[in-house]
Amino acid sequence: MESAPNSIYFLTALFLVLLSGFLHALWNLFTKRSVKKDVFLWLCQWAGVIVYLPWVILYIPQSVADIKSYSLLFASMILHGIYVILLAKTYSLGDLSQVYPIMRGTSLLLVPLISVFFLGLHLGVVSWIGISFIVSGIFFISGAKFNKISPRPKVAILLASSVGICIASYILVDAISIKYWPPFVLNEATNLGNGLALSFSVFRSRAIRNEWKINWKTVLLGGIFAQGGYLLFLYAVTIAPVGQLAPMREIGTVFGTMFGIVILKEKQGKSRIIASILIATGIIILGFSGR
């Protein structure tokens, strides 16, 4: 049985992760509603860099400068950069309520498995039951039946799966990097990586002024929510195991699906509600399963 202090720490981490999931779904909604996805994401990255820069300056003296720490930071920047390029392409082709669950579901499946086999994390039977509920619900939402859909959605599903692989990869790298870099510094570096990765296509599109004119409010909010949400997650993994917290963050899948149904008016059925219940049930089981 966990002691009271450990329980408090875990509940704090759980709250931070659930809030992180909500903010993540919200800025993904903003991205889906934007005109040029890559331009919108590019603007969000630089907005986040500027907004959080004062805190980064305060945290820089806490950083450890050696080859290993810089290698991890560079790897994180590359993975985040690939992620944001694929994300823009995915939202250009697929519905929010379809591709968002696939992206989050793929990472959800991979992070605990990699954590167990490579990071030495042990998950009990109850934890695995919770994970299986969440994964089942997420892929039920996705409706990923390759033989019954047209080529365009097929590409969107494949891209979404690739995004999920990137998410799993950078979560694990960042979980290690956080031991060497304060969260604000790590987050700022990945924002820079994202901005640089998108720059070529963005400048070639010549759509920066138009996107800013139409969506400047959601650009600013997206920059704050995207970076702030991930910061909450980074702080949470300093309190509790990443393999357990990463699945809980997927409560954002429920929020994302509801945004697609209610706000974007995407075609959905009762199956989406059932899938959301599966996800919520899995999160509750995982949350109370302990380590």
Report on the structure:
With 291 residues, the protein is mainly alpha-helical. The protein has 11 helices and no strands. Helix 4 packs parallel to helix 6 and helix 7 runs antiparallel to helix 8. The chain is globular, with a radius of gyration of 18 Å. The model has no long low-confidence stretch (mean pLDDT 84).
List keywords for this structure.
single chain; 291 residues; mainly alpha
Short description:
By secondary structure, the chain is an all-alpha fold. 81% of the residues lie in helices and 0% in strands.
SSE topology string: HHHHHHHHHHH
Please count the helical segments.
Answer: 11
Morphology:
globular
Fraction of residues in helix: over 70%
Q: How many strand units?
A: 0
Structural class: mainly alpha
Instruction: Give the DSSP E fraction (strand runs of 2 or more residues).
Output: under 5%
Pick out the low-confidence regions.
none
Q: Tell me the radius of gyration.
A: 18 Å
**What profile does the largest beta sheet have?**
none
Distance between the termini: 10 Å
Chain-averaged pLDDT? 84
Secondary-structure blueprint of this entry?
Blueprint: H1 4-33, H2 37-59, H3 67-93, H4 96-118, H5 125-142, H6 151-177, H7 183-205, H8 208-236, H9 242-248, H10 251-262, H11 270-287
